[in-house]
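Entry 12.
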Amino acid sequence: MKAAVADELSAAYDSARVDDLRASGFVRRSGRITIHLAREFGFCYGVDRAVDYAYQTRKRFPTQRVFLTGEIIHNPHVNDQLRARGIRILTDPGEDRAQLGRDDVVILPAFGVSISEMASLEQQGCTLVDTTCGSVLNVWKNVRRYAVDGFTSIIHGKVHHEETRATASQATGNDGHFLVVLDADEAAIVCDFIRRGDHPGALLDRFRAAVSPGFDAARDLERIGCANQTTMLMSESLQIGEMFRAAMRDRHGEASLGERFRAFDTICSATQERQDAVVALLTEQPLDMMVVLGGYNSSNTCNLARICADRVPTYHIAEPNCLSPDEIRHRPIGGPSTAATAERVTHGWLPAGTLMIGLTAGASTPDSLVGQVIEKLEVLGLGPS
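Predicted 3D structure (tokens):
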């Protein structure tokens, strides 16, 4: 039913202003502001496919209850659009998974769901529509192979993120185990244990919420394979992989690496393309600041903001209405995950004089919102300096 929802999708998520900016070389001048748009931004294939499937599902089952197991992607605008079309999200207040039955339709989001959640939905007899991203499925394939071969999966990701939880569940098949590390600092703690092999209780206390049931550090870190949440910062995932490779080499010797350590590049191509594009923009243009658009709980958007903040003043905004002449509402960059939805208000964010502003958007951000931000910046450029 793709053709049946094409016009509705275009009206909700496309932008003529973005199309014009692409056609003009990804640059637009408006008064004192020049806008440089990254050459890769916004909706990736997996997100576009997931949203398309959700609209098709609503059209295909007009009289049945349609649910999402959770947010289809991490963008509040898109999730609100789906709610407005009668698609209910099971993580919303008041929803009850226990009441699902054979007459209900349940959409699995792009992040995927855990093995146990899938089994529960199948047992309840729901009609399932699976929009799990192909890049996520590729990670699952690798961690399942690790488990079959007796390797523990070391997953670079956010332990409470839907995708990481789903991947971790795949790792526990065939008596497999997993350990999730958030960043290089956490990886260093585990690597130190691998090298020294002492105080396993302290390691378990530190990672109690991030390991598989029955995890035994002394046993389960003898053979490891690296994987990652697909939206993490690519350079950090590669760094963490090398850290574990070095730790295993130091503990067991170079000759043993082949039988004790494995690693695959499981960053999705769209995430990498958007990160590469923003690095290219920062390198090629003398920007005064970057604006990064996307949900505050969007991992790939947060990582785009981290890349930019290392080079120029950067503001991560959730929506076009975050911008005004006198102030900007934005998420602090690099803060703890518990502060993912916290906003800060900065006054006087636009310096006087001519400005070159870079713009990019996370993979869960539609062109319609990017276009509205471009329009806001154009208006600001024509205002007083």
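Annotation: The chain is about 45% helix and 15% strand. Residues 75 and 295 are 5 Å apart (CA to CA).
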